[in-house]
Amino acid sequence: MKLAYLAKIPQAQAALRATGERVTEPRVAVLATLLSSDHAMSHLDVAAMVAKHHTIDRVTVYRVLDWLVGVSIAHRIAGDDRVWRFMLNPQASAQGAGKKTAHHAPSHAHAHFTCNTCGQTFCLDKVQPKMNVKLPTGFRTTEVDLKIRGLCAECK
Amino acid sequence: MKLAYLAKIPQAQAALRATGERVTEPRVAVLATLLSSDHAMSHLDVAAMVAKHHTIDRVTVYRVLDWLVGVSIAHRIAGDDRVWRFMLNPQASAQGAGKKTAHHAPSHAHAHFTCNTCGQTFCLDKVQPKMNVKLPTGFRTTEVDLKIRGLCAECK
DNA sequence: AACCTTTTTGCGACTCAATTGCATCTACGA
DNA sequence: TCGTAGATGCAATTGAGTCGCAAAAAGGTT
Ligand SMILES: [Mn+2]
Ligand SMILES: [Mn+2]
Ligand SMILES: [Zn+2]
Ligand SMILES: [Zn+2]
Fold first, then answer.
1. Which positions on chain D have an atom < 7 Å from some protein CB?
2. Integer Cα distance of A84 and B100 in angstroms
3. B113 and chain A: CB distance < 8 Å anywhere?
4. What are the domain boundaries of chain A?
5. Structure pTM?
6. B14 CB within 8 Å of a chain A CB
7. What is the pLDDT of residues A82-127, one digit of tens each?
8. For domain B2-150, which CATH number applies: 3.40.50.300, 1.10.10.10, 1.10.540.10, 3.40.50.720?
């Protein structure tokens, strides 16, 4: 919880400018929101936060979120409640974020933790799922997702 | 693909009787369907298969599927398309399947593989995600989910 | 600064998996 | 055979996410 939306706006603008793509109010607002959170946020979470300072359509929030994933600034995490949650990629603010990639960021190889009690989802950037899994013959891996459920530090 | 729905009906009935719960036509039909599949099936997959032999409401199929998860005969797998897929637990036919558990079957500790091309989801019962993951202080694990995406043997 | 072209946004309608409420039916123990 | 807890059918509803299109920027150019 590093609640500091307003303070994150300049950083958001800089990161967006670095992509070479258009810097718009909805993009700044959504990115600043993600920058202010230490855990993954659903579309609804983001929209609610953004609504405190702007009037932005929910469809636009959906599209901005998808766009942020496309330009490798954020990644999306599937929840057990059929809701996507979004979080910044590890070094999103520092690096210039490469061009659009098909899916996840290439550097996105960390685990996710969801607390059974508070429902919050975190990225465990330290936990590299170095799976030396033996797949059946003929199977080829392109991506690995590790999801851990349990109790977070707050809720234990 | 071991397509043999009718042949699985006695086995389904036996497994259901073993739970001590009520043995109904929808339950037999849905379980026989799952028994006849080597890969995870969506609600729609199951309903379509069942419809060839019975007239069962789609809501009932939803409820039976949930019930099968509850009594630890099957487990559900979240897809990237926001659709649940269901598959029998490893030894569902042999064991007497314990009482209702809160979530996944306790013995459910295997990985899932989804093919990017054909979309089929398989359970990799051989792949035990023996994660020696280091969680942040205070975090406690209750469940680990490993999802692998790639190309299956058929599609490669 | 006015202009042009390309994106992006707002809004309404829509999709579709899954859920809910409720009346009716049924599996199965007594 | 009966009684009843539990299961089913049906219609309505929820809710995340998507689509089409016209109006509104963003940002480069003159
Ligand atoms: Mn992550
Ligand atoms: Mn499985
Ligand atoms: Zn928690
Ligand atoms: Zn395949």
1. 6-12, 16-20, 25-27
2. 28
3. yes
4. 2-150
5. 0.87
6. no
7. 999 999 998 744 443 444 333 334 446 789 999 999 999 999 987 6
8. 1.10.10.10
